[in-house]
Amino acid sequence: MYELVLVAVVLCILFKILNVNNSPEKSIFYCSNQNFLDEFLKRAPELTQPYVPTRFWGFSGHIQTIVQSVISRLHCPLVNGHRISMKLTDGATVTYDLYHAINQQKEMLDITLAICPGIGNNSESVYIRRVVYHAQLNGYRVCVLNHIGTLASVPVTSPRIFMYGNTADYAAMIKDVVRRYPGTKLVCVGFSMGGNIVGKYLGEPRIKPVNVVAGVAVCAGYDMIGGMRMLMEWNGFRRMYMYAMTENMKAIIRRCWRELFTEQVKNKLGISERQVFNSGTLVELDDVYTRRLAGFKSVTEFYIANSSYHHFKNIKVPTVFINARDDPIIPPPLLEVIRDAALKYENIVFVEQKFGGHLGFYEGGFLRSNPLTWQDRMVVHIADALVEGGGKEKEGLELESENVSNATVHTSGVFDDTGTESDEKEGEFVHRNSGGPNLRIEKFNIGMTSDYTSLDSSDPGSPTNLTPANTPVLRRKVLGCGGVEE
After folding, report:
1. What is the pLDDT of residue 348?
2. Which of 32, 72, 123, 192 is catalytic?
């Protein structure tokens, strides 16, 4: 009897949790412009191949997500970059890390990946380090935004941290990179929350440098109202992910509470530390803190203004969005908006993969996955394709059309007018286009803009040395908002 129960439990784990009965599948592509999609897939042939998750646990979206956020910290490449600080006009100090190409070839163009990490993440996050290292090896310069408040070694100099849809910090990084390297081509890359910021930045009616030629967003959420509503549900254990993200946000706020809860902020905006630290969900935290700091009357209004899907119709550069259907944080119902946008607006390609979890996409092996994930490879592979290979010799350019036709493709002949009124002055957050909401962040007493004064105008330095594939991670003990202990 006990043997039968044990067998039943093992089978349940194998087939219901680990999903070992599944098999690798090809991605599904959605695009309204068939000619553009065909040319893109010719230049990115690896996208048309099946994604092969790690055999024993890779078919579980939950385990992929947990491995990404916890277990992967044990081994990651140690990349060496140059940290650059900028001062925004609201008093905030924004930093980004700049990494030079390792294998730079003379025939290659000057291309920079501008990366925006996920919620509470920065250049020291494991999945960011992997992408940076892989891009360096493929001849790319990389810059990574460090979200305000996420680095204990960087002091917070204004009463705010990062926000879900605040593109000012990312725009300031882009502007500074272009100032340093006027001839570079920029590919905007975002992960999770960073993908929402990148999508919003590319579609906002702000003046963007002509250097920005393409965009890539991985595991992004596009509708904050729908996303928060689904994270409040227990189905798929999403409420547990909500709890983890809420505690992470409160930890960031708690570490820098002296700088964030000034008397002016508390008195003028009616913010209470007790309410903030007693918040049980992100919705509660945003209601008592974040939306007030941004100048919104309700959390619903705040979420609408910070959602990227309102700006999809104004994206004017080729942009690829990637999501997994087994993502426990961005479940399938939230992908309808990007799927519809890809079938409606000609500059968008949506790549839908059945497996991968949230920022996981570990591949190969039975128990131990490959050091490089499918996500890491595809970001660089897609960047190559979107900038026409960046001057590199591309084997995929000579592929016959029947090789691409094996992929599952959905297209539509419907196009919307992507023209907009003339771009507003850079750094202004008010969206005056009647088709979208107004982001009234300028209501905040100091005003958030993307104008900045560089605090570090020194030469970024020479390219970094080759870093081994698996280097021990530096461990730091947090002492406070402005100091660390090695």
Report:
1. 97
2. 192
Query: What's the rounded Cα separation, in Å, for the pair 223 and 196?
Result: 9
* Sign of the dihedral defined by the CA atoms of residues 459, 465, 468, 469, in that order: positive
Q: Cβ distance 317 to 214 under 8 Å?
A: yes
Would you say how long the chain is, in residues?
A: 486
DSSP, res 152: T
- Cβ pair 383, 189 in contact under 8 A: yes
Write down the catalytic residue from 327, 376, 384, 451: 327
What does the DSSP 8-state code read for residue 468? -
Give residue-wise pLDDT tens across range 202-255. Answer: 999 988 999 999 999 999 999 999 999 999 999 988 999 999 999 999 999 999
Residue with tokens 């993908």: 195
Residue in 147, 358, 381, 431 annotated catalytic: 358
The answer to whether 292 and 190 have CB atoms below 8 angstroms apart is: no
Sign for the pseudo-dihedral over CA of 28, 31, 32, 34: negative
- Complete DSSP assignment for 225-287: HHHHHHHTS-GGGHHHHHHHHHHHHHHHHHHTHHHHS-HHHHHHH---HHHHHT--SHHHHII
CA distance linking residue 183 with residue 98, whole number of Å: 16
Q: Enumerate residues 6+ apart whose C-beta is below 8 A from 298.
A: 291
390: left (phi over 0), alpha (psi -120 to 50) or beta: left
Give the pLDDT score at 394: 34
* Catalytic residue status for 327: yes
Q: What is each CA distance from 209 to 156, 171, 175, 327, 464, in whole angstroms?
A: 28, 10, 7, 33, 27
Residue 97 CA to residue 418 CA, distance in Å, equals 33
Average pLDDT over residues 274-303: 96
Q: How many CB atoms lie within 10 A of CB 102?
A: 18
On average, the pLDDT of the chain sits at 80
| 192 given a catalytic annotation | yes
C-alpha–C-alpha distance, residues 214 and 315, integer Å: 10
Helix axes 224-231, 238-255, angle to 10 degrees: 110
DSSP structural state of residue 471:
B
